[in-house]
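Journal club prep, notes for RB
We'll compare a predicted complex against what the paper describes. Inputs for the FE2/S2 (inorganic) cluster case:
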Amino acid sequence: MTFISLPIDLYASMDLVDGGTAVAFDVVYAGQICRAFAVRFEGRPCAYLNRCTHVPMEMDYQPGRFFDDTGRWLLCATHGAAYRPDTGACAGGPCRGGLVKIELSEVQNVVRWHTDHHLQPVEF
Ligand code: FES
């Protein structure tokens, strides 16, 4: 199977506020269009598939709201699984492994997604 690896401009850096609301985008994962999200944590942009590892459903309790009140954990609204914002690793609750991480970079005030063979843009 062929795939194309591309850097894709997602958002302006200022759209991602540390510990704040996530920004959403769509990806093709395992042949399906899925929601993904990006947040900023400790200054760095991080992105994951919006799919809990407990039950494969979207995690935000309101659109774009993933952080707990402390801004230290990403929470799943359904049963309370907690994930590390920087790695997506399970940090507590009923999660089974970590979130699917999406590679980002940030250059000249633009956050870019680097596609790979697992995660492709919807257009392809
Ligand atoms: S679906 Fe996320 S914790 Fe159960």
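Talking point for the session: The chain has a mean pLDDT of 94.
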